[in-house]
Every structure is written in structure tokens, then in C-alpha cells.
């Protein structure tokens, strides 16, 4: 305790005693030191009036005092059913004075959400039970609440029987394992953890004295990521797509139970395949799929366009490669393969491929689909199948691979129509010879990765077009990378042949003339023949300038410059007269 000219400072009091003294106005917190209380000397002049005013002006201190004396727990934490659980306030258990155990009665404090600094004090009763059904524990609890007093802003008034202060009762039943992520009820993608019902009787409200609220606890509808509490009004406002997903999920669950199948089996993938669910089971990393609006079929039929929902759904699906990949993942999942990856970029030349059947000794059969957009903005789909045979190994490294692609049809999708053209078929078969450990062939800087041969058949307009192919891929020669060489294309083959022949001749002459081995005379001869590059940067600059002026003389200039450089750099042929004559001849040109 310390004193100054106006106040006596007190610290270290029991918390309950401090709150009581603050509530009646005897003590006041020091603004400069919240842990220190200041004794109010004027309180002793009229203690009754000061105490009354303190209680009326400081209802929060009264609520804190009750919490300190009795302990508290929020109504929301207790799971008490109400439309807005956060407004139920704090429940303070009143113990039995004889045994000290909870009596089932509570003193409830609630802050008015419309009036700042105003608290309502009520008397409440609450009891809970625990039931077990099919190895599932269920917590049942019921409560009743009667408002008594309202305190704050200098007023103390009775609110029992006043409008806006109803008597409320409620009942809740919820699974005891929701905190572990296990809901009470789960049917496919639909789950919830129980329900709560609350009723409010407002005697003074003659217009609407009785209100009933029913909430579903931790409800998660198909397609949703997180669970939440939903009232009946919330459920009435759910969209048609949510109703479709919920009904479909319940149907698949019932079908699974009827057929005694696993709940996480292939049937669950039917929902996203037919546009009945936006999520792919066991693939939370994939994007949400669009929902096929089956609920609009009647309106579409009345508009004489019953295909509109299907067309719009698949146009939205095929417009995004990632969505189409997710949909194909569901198709593959229905076949029992839940770990397969979808390959391809989604174009016609590189369609998305979803493995359907895989036999180790034979190969893989895949469903594939590609698309493109024509200049008019119409999306064209090309569904088909693809087969990749198991490689046939000739030895440890060299193997033969066979692949075939069959384009089954063409779908043209626009906003107003969808056209199906079954006659536009395309078939491709490719045979590849490759080396699993490196290039197929490699010799002294000449390299080839694979040899590919194939045949493409295209049927359109009643005629068949046959296009053979034979390619070398990964072709490289010394100091040059040729990439893919089409052996059936004259231009591609001639370009590759000339590059290869030039490389072979250069390499042969280099060996024959003993170039690049320090022999200056041989290197100069190589420069004369154009095998080695010129050494003089100045000479190359002169050539460029002369070529711009008189392009027709470039060949002669190259020869003269090369000869001039040979004479200048060769110690055995350094004759000024010859150099001068060549130089004069060069400049005359």
C-alpha cells in the first residue's frame, strides 16, 4: 500500500475481492499501472449510493466477478443449440452448497449485441447424456434459459416478460468424435455430425411469440471443402447443383450398400463422370469440375433444345485442359486405376491419354481426347483410343516399340449446336527402334537416337488418304545438330545429306592434309581450300565492305584474300613483289 495527496494505492488483493471493490466503486484501476488499484476516498461519503451507481455503471465487472467465483464456459463451447450460439453468453455453474458438486443450475451472463455496455443476467438449467449406437458415441444435451435482469448504462431493470427477452429451450444430439474428423453420419461425400433444435417463447411479442430453429451440425455437402452448421433456411437456399450432387451421392451410397461393395470403390467415380459431382475422390489436388445441370432438362425440352445442358457442360469441360484431365482421372478411377497419370497436352496432335487397360506382357490401352478451335470459334473434339505395346527387346539395350492411335470421330461444339461426324476417321501406327541406354547409333561424333517408321490412314469424304513416314530423330554430326530428319521428304533428306557429306569431306581432308596439328603450310592450304576459317578479322571486314559494293566479285575476293594471307604468313614465301601485285589486283577489282 502507498499513498499520495489524493489516493491510496493498493495491490496484491485477492482477485474476487478486487473485482467486488471495483464493481461497487471503492477501488479504481490506476491508468498508469493496471496492476495497481486506487482507493476512492469519496466513496465513504455515501457508500450505498456509490455502490448502487457502481453496479449499474459497471455490469462487466459484475459478470467477471461471477466468472471468478463460479467459473465459466461459453454457451457455444457447450454446444447449446440456438440459431446464433455466440449470443448465448457465458454459463456459470452454481454448485450444490452441501456437496459442492454442480447442481445443474447456471447463472448466465450475456452482453447485448445492440447496446454497448449492457448485460442480461439469466438463470439457466442444462443436462447432458451420452448414448452409444452401433459403436458410435452420441452426446445428448438439453437446456432452458430464463432472462431475469438487465444491467448497464446506469440502469437496472427486470426483463422477464419484456418483449425481446424470450424464454428459450433447446436440445442437441451430436457425435462425440467430430473433433477427430469422424462425423456421426457419412454417406458418400455427404456428412454431418448431428442436429440441434431450439425454441423461443416471447410472451410480450403478440405478433410472433414462438420461434423454432433447427440446425444441422457440421454439414458437408458433396463438392464442398469444409463443413459448417446449416439452418433450415440455409438448406432451403442451396442451389440446384448442390441438390443434384447430394441426391447423386445418396444414390451411389445406397447402391453400394445394396450390392455390398466397398464405399471407396469404383462406383464413387461415376458421379464426376456424369457431371453429378464437382470433386474427384482421392484427388484433392485436382480442380473442381463443372456440374451438369440435370435440373434444367425440363426447361431445355420446352425450349426444343434438350441437348443444351449436356453441350454446355462438355464445352466448359473441354475448354480447359486441366478440367479435362481431372475428368479423365475420374474415368480411369472407375476402371480401378486410382494412381494413373494423364499425359499429353490436349491438342489433336498430342491428345490427353488416360490408361484404361494395362497388361504387362501385351501393352497399355488408353482412351484419348484432343481438341482445337477453328477460326470461327467452334471447338472441335477428337476422341479415340491409343495402344502402346510392350517393347520387344533384341538384346539388353536395343528394343522395338509399336504404338497405334485410332481417332474414332469428330465432335463440333458451339453455343447453339453440336455436330457429330463419325466418318472422319484417322489411324496411325508407328514402329520405333531405340536404345534404352543411349543413342541408337554413334560413331566418331555422328549420332542418331531413334529410327521411327509409320503409316497414317485418314478417311474423309469417302476416300482414304495414306501417308507413310520414316524418320531419324536426335541426329547430330560433328559441330552440328540436325534434330529430326524425315527420310521420305526430299528437302529434309537432301539438307541432311549435304550437311553430312560436307562434314565427312571436311573431316577426311583435315586428316589427309594433317590440319590443325601445328603445320603452318598445311593450315594455309586448308584455308585456301576453305576447309579452315580465315584468321584475319581485318580481312573479313574488308570482304564485307567490298561485297556490299560489288557482290559479283565475292568469289574472286575470297580467293585473293586467302592467297594474300598465305603469302604474308608463310615464312618461305615472303616476297614483297608478289604480295604487292596481288594487293593491287585486289583493289582494282
Poorly predicted ranges (pLDDT <50, ≥5 residues)? 1-6, 73-87, 550-556, 571-589
Main beta sheet, described? 11 strands, antiparallel
Please give the share of residues in helix: 25-40%
Oligomer: single chain
Mean pLDDT: 71
Can you walk me through this structure?
- A hairpin with a 4-residue loop joins β22 (410-413) and β23.
- Mean pLDDT is 71; it is low at 1-6, 73-87, 550-556 and 571-589.
- Helices cover 28% and strands 35% of the residues.
- Among the domains are: 2-57, no CATH class; 352-510, no CATH class; 513-588, no CATH class.
- With 589 residues, it is α+β, with helices and mostly antiparallel strands.
Secondary structure elements and pairings:
Elements lengths: L1 E2 L4 E3 L4 H9 L3 E4 L2 E7 L7 H11 L1 H12 L2 E2 L15 E6 L6 E10 L7 E15 L2 E17 L2 E4 L8 E9 L9 E3 L2 E3 L1 E8 L8 E10 L8 E4 H5 L3 H19 L11 H4 L23 H6 L5 H11 L2 H14 L17 E8 L3 E11 L5 E11 L2 E2 L4 E10 L2 E4 L4 E4 L3 E11 L5 E3 L2 E3 L1 E11 L2 E15 L2 E7 L3 H23 L7 H9 L8 H13 L4 H16 L6 H13 L1
Antiparallel strand pairs: 1-2, 2-4, 3-4, 5-6, 6-7, 7-8, 8-9, 9-10, 9-11, 11-14, 12-13, 14-15, 15-16, 17-18, 18-19, 19-21, 19-22, 20-21, 21-24, 22-23, 24-27, 25-26, 27-28, 28-29
Distinctive features:
29 strands, 589 residues, ten-stranded antiparallel β-sheet, 14 helices, disordered N terminus, alpha+beta, eleven-stranded antiparallel β-sheet, elongated
Amino acid at each position: 500500500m502507498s499513498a499520495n495527496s489524493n489516493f491510496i494505492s493498493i495491490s496484491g488483493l485477492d482477485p474476487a475481492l478486487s473485482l467486488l471493490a471495483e464493481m461497487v466503486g471503492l477501488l479504481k484501476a490506476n491508468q498508469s499501472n493496471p496492476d495497481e488499484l486506487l482507493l476512492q476516498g469519496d466513496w465513504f461519503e455515501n457508500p450505498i449510493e456509490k455502490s448502487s451507481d457502481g453496479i449499474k455503471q459497471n455490469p462487466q465487472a459484475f459478470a467477471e466477478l461471477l466468472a471468478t467465483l463460479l467459473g465459466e464456459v461459453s454457451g457455444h463451447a457447450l454446444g447449446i443449440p440456438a440459431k446464433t450460439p455466440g449470443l448465448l453468453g457465458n454459463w456459470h455453474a452454481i454448485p450444490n452448497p452441501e456437496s459442492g458438486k454442480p447442481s445443474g443450475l447456471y447463472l448466465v451472463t450475456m452482453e447485448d449485441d445492440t447496446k454497448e455496455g449492457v448485460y442480461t443476467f439469466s438463470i439457466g438449467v442444462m443436462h447432458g447424456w451420452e448414448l452409444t449406437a452401433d459403436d458410435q458415441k452420441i452426446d445428448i444435451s438439453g437446456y432452458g434459459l430464463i432472462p431475469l435482469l438487465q444491467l448497464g448504462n446506469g440502469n437496472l431493470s427486470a426483463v422477464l416478460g419484456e418483449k425481446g427477452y424470450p424464454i428459450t429451450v433447446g436440445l442437441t444430439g451430436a457425435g462425440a468424435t467430430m473433433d477427430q474428423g469422424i462425423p456421426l453420419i457419412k454417406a458418400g461425400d455427404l456428412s454431418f455430425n448431428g442436429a440441434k433444435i431450439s425454441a423461443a417463447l416471447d410472451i410480450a411479442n403478440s405478433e410472433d411469440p414462438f420461434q423454432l430453429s433447427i440446425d444441422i451440425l457440421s454439414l458437408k455437402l458433396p463438392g464442398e471443402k469444409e463443413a459448417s452448421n446449416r439452418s433450415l433456411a440455409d438448406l432451403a437456399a442451396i442451389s440446384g447443383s448442390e441438390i443434384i450432387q447430394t441426391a447423386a451421392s445418396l444414390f451411389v451410397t445406397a447402391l453400394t450398400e445394396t450390392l455390398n461393395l466397398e464405399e471407396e470403390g469404383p462406383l464413387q467415380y461415376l458421379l464426376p463422370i456424369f457431371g453429378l459431382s464437382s470433386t474427384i475422390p482421392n484427388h484433392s489436388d485436382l480442380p473442381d469440375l463443372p456440374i451438369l445441370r440435370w435440373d434444367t432438362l425440363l426447361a431445355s425440352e420446352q425450349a426444343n433444345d434438350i441437348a443444351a445442358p449436356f453441350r454446355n457442360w462438355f464445352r466448359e469441360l473441354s475448354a480447359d485442359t486441366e478440367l479435362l484431365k481431372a475428368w479423365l482421372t475420374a474415368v480411369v478411377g472407375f476402371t480401378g486405376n486410382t494412381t494413373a497419370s494423364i499425359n499429353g497436352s490436349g491438342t489433336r496432335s498430342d491428345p490427353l491419354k488416360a490408361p484404361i487397360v494395362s497388361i504387362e506382357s501385351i501393352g497399355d490401352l488408353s482412351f484419348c481426347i484432343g481438341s482445337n478451335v477453328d477460326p470461327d470459334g467452334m471447338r472441335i473434339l477428337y476422341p479415340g483410343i491409343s495402344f502402346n505395346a510392350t517393347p520387344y527387346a533384341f538384346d539388353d539395350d536395343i528394343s522395338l516399340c509399336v504404338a497405334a492411335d485410332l481417332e474414332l470421330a469428330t465432335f463440333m461444339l458451339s453455343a447453339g449446336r453440336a455436330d457429330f461426324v463419325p466418318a472422319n476417321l484417322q489411324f496411325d501406327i508407328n514402329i520405333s527402334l531405340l536404345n534404352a541406354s543411349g543413342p541408337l547409333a554413334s560413331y566418331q561424333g555422328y549420332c542418331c537416337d531413334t529410327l521411327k517408321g509409320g503409316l497414317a490412314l485418314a478417311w474423309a469424304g469417302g476416300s482414304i488418304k495414306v501417308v507413310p513416314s520414316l524418320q531419324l530423330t536426335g541426329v547430330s554430326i560433328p559441330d552440328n545438330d540436325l534434330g529430326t530428319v524425315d527420310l521420305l521428304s526430299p528437302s529434309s533428306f537432301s539438307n541432311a545429306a549435304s550437311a553430312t557429306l560436307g562434314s565427312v569431306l571436311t573431316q577426311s581432308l583435315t586428316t589427309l592434309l594433317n590440319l590443325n596439328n601445328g603445320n603452318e603450310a598445311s593450315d594455309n592450304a586448308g584455308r585456301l581450300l576453305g576447309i579452315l576459317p580465315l584468321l584475319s578479322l581485318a580481312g573479313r571486314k574488308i570482304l564485307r565492305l567490298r561485297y556490299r559494293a560489288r557482290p559479283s566479285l565475292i568469289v574472286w575476293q575470297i580467293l585473293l584474300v586467302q592467297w594474300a594471307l598465305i603469302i604474308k604468313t608463310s615464312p618461305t614465301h615472303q616476297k614483297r613483289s608478289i604480295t604487292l601485285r596481288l594487293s593491287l589486283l585486289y583493289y582494282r577489282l
